[in-house]
Amino acid sequence: MDTLSATLSALADPTRRGLLAQLALGEATVGDLAEPYEMSLAAVSKHLKVLEHAGLVTRGRTAQYRPCRLDAKPMKEALDYLSSYRRFWEENFSRLDALLEEMKADTENPGKDRT
Amino acid sequence: MDTLSATLSALADPTRRGLLAQLALGEATVGDLAEPYEMSLAAVSKHLKVLEHAGLVTRGRTAQYRPCRLDAKPMKEALDYLSSYRRFWEENFSRLDALLEEMKADTENPGKDRT
DNA sequence: TCTATATTAAACCAATTAGTTATCAACTAT
DNA sequence: ATAGTTGATAACTAATTGGTTTAATATAGA
Fold first, then answer.
1. What pLDDT was estimated at residue A90?
2. Residues B111, A51: Cα–Cα separation, whole Å
3. Which pLDDT band holds residue B106 (cuts at 50, 70, 90)?
4. Which domain holds residue A75?
5. Complete DSSP assignment for B22-88
6. For tag attachment on chain A, is the N or C end more exposed, with fewer CB atoms within 10 Å?
7. Do B85 and A75 touch (CB under 8 A)?
8. Is B115 contained in some domain?
9. Number of domains in chain B
């Protein structure tokens, strides 16, 4: 699977987003991370493996703990992808909207330059 | 399913991202959209239903055609979500990296101020 | 060495997904 | 009316996902 698909599908799950939110507060063990959830530890462990595979989580090894930490770099690629569509929701960049804006500006401030 | 999960999972598929890319060039029919793909029309139709369900595609109705158009608004929410993690990949905001940058700057340009 | 703790792995299950083919529905045009 | 086009739906299959429970592994500490 390509990295963008891996990143987006890893993020497309509320549990996994929750795990990342916890990790945004700092390194944590699997047990720490699992504590807020009702599901089994093994289930959380699997979610972490998905995040790890997507490169969003890396893990260390101290004693019997395998501390997880956030690695947000893959998110950058995802954000860049979404950014490429920005003009489609920032309606003032659309053809029609630009035209309407122009007409509106002409009506309200005749002769004024576009910003 | 929450809208963020729906958006991200809809986007986590290269075929669906391809469909959106085509729609970024303008409205298109299902047949138009399916043409570049090897899969059946029915499969593309299903992908479009996923995109529609996520609010990324809306469709009209003219004659026997059901023209699709892009609606990127749900992407904004996804982008806002990713943006909230920006500080984690803009490494100059991390504690360790700030320190390393400072040390490096001191080594290479002793006495010089940080930019 | 024995036991407790932390985590993963294995085997299993139900639900979902991504695809297929075949059929149905809506509309056009002859 | 009938045939052709466009697209959706249905029924099916194989693979994946998200969860479970139970066992295995790794380490710490008595």
1. 85
2. 42
3. low
4. 3-108
5. HHHT--B-HHHHHTT-SS-HHHHHHHHHHHHHTTSEEE--BTTB--EEE--HHHHHHHHHHHTTHHH
6. C
7. yes
8. no
9. 1
